[in-house]
Amino acid sequence: MKRRARGRVGKESSLAPRAPETPVSPLQAALASRAGTILATLGIFLCACAVFWSTRTYAFLNWDDKVYILTNPWIKALTWENVQAIFTRPYFQNFLPLHLFSYLLDHALWGENAGGYHLSSLLIHALNSVLCFLVVRRLSGDAGIGLVAALLFAVHPAHVESVAWVSSRKDVVSTAFLLLSLRSYLAARRGGALRPLPVAASCAWFLLGMLSKVSVAPLPAFLLLWDRMPPGRGGRPLPWVPALLSKIPYAIIAGVLILVNSRAQVTAQAAYAHEPIRYLAVKGHAVWNYLALLFGREGNPDYDLPGIGGSAASAVDLAGLLVLPALAYVLFRWKRRLEFLGVA
User: In the chain, at which residue ranges do the beta strands (DSSP E only) sit?
Assistant: First the structure.
């Protein structure tokens, strides 16, 4: 009787209905293979190159290109003295040595041929587009979303200034290191713990990003959000203590280099750089400009600085600092994880 009961239970359990599996689209199935990933990355790279290919024929601009390239004594020869100067002294009110080092390598390859410098920026942007695909695929768990995001990243007009203006090289270089840092950190996550070697690699990439442009400094805050919002159902968030402790190296790197650049920028001539309220208004104004550019407004490289004087326009500019955090909070409350991470 007992044996029959066991057999009956086993038979009933084997016939129990299973939860329906989520269907996999043909695109996801194709991108899941190694060949599909290679073809996707190649397509993204070529798409980015095709859109910006004409920049190879562009000349230098009279906005900063003369200071950074044509009259910059530190990039004229690939010598130890020039490398030492680049990595130990501020230049043009900033300490961004990898930004200048990229020009040193360009000068060694192309001399003062502007087309070579534009080609370098173009290739870095194409590489960033591929990295965008790999990072978004990991963040979302969906290769299709990663492909669409990378293609938009590759062709979006918001990148025109960064790619077509040689002096804006700091943007594409810092983005490359930021994406590499983020990708290494995503690879470090295993369940409820972090593997030390990928985290160390992520910190190293972050350091290189900060040496290219200090605007990558908020990355540790995003990594903390990622720790607390794991992917998939049933994913365990990283406990607060290890999550915070793992960000200490990032905070030290960011704090030191922000301090160094702040001291280098004390000599800046722009009035807003020495007035805290106006400085914040400029940053908020920039948020509105970038959001408008993101949604199709024509870009203008001649930045319009907002005025300060208690006007309603000034209040709107300052409100620009709150719009993205407010949107992120709403998405967090609605449990829209992917959208929340995107805004973050």
Answer: 189-190, 193-194
Retrieve residue 78's tokens: 């690939």
- Do 313 and 209 lie in one domain? The reply is no
pLDDT tier for residue 16 given thresholds of 50, 70 and 90: very low
Please name which of 224, 129, 222 lies closest in space to residue 175, comparing C-alpha atoms. Answer: 129
CA–CA gap between residue 322 and residue 328 (Å, rounded) = 10
Residue pair 116/232 in contact by the 8 Å Cβ criterion: no
All residues at 6 or more sequence positions from 154 whose CB lies less than 8 Å from its CB, including other chains: 44, 47, 48, 51, 125, 126, 129, 132
Question: What is the tens place of the pLDDT at every residue in 195-247?
Answer: 999 999 999 999 999 999 999 999 999 999 888 876 665 567 888 898 999 99
Give the domain range for residue 332: 272-344
- Asked if the structure places residue 71 within a domain, the reply is yes
User: What's the CA gap between 211 and 159, in Å, rounded?
Assistant: 21
Residues 264 and 280 grouped into a single domain? no
Q: How many domains does the chain have?
A: 2
CB-neighbour burial class of residue 110 (10 A; exposed 0-12, middle 13-18, buried 19+): middle
| pTM for this prediction | 0.84
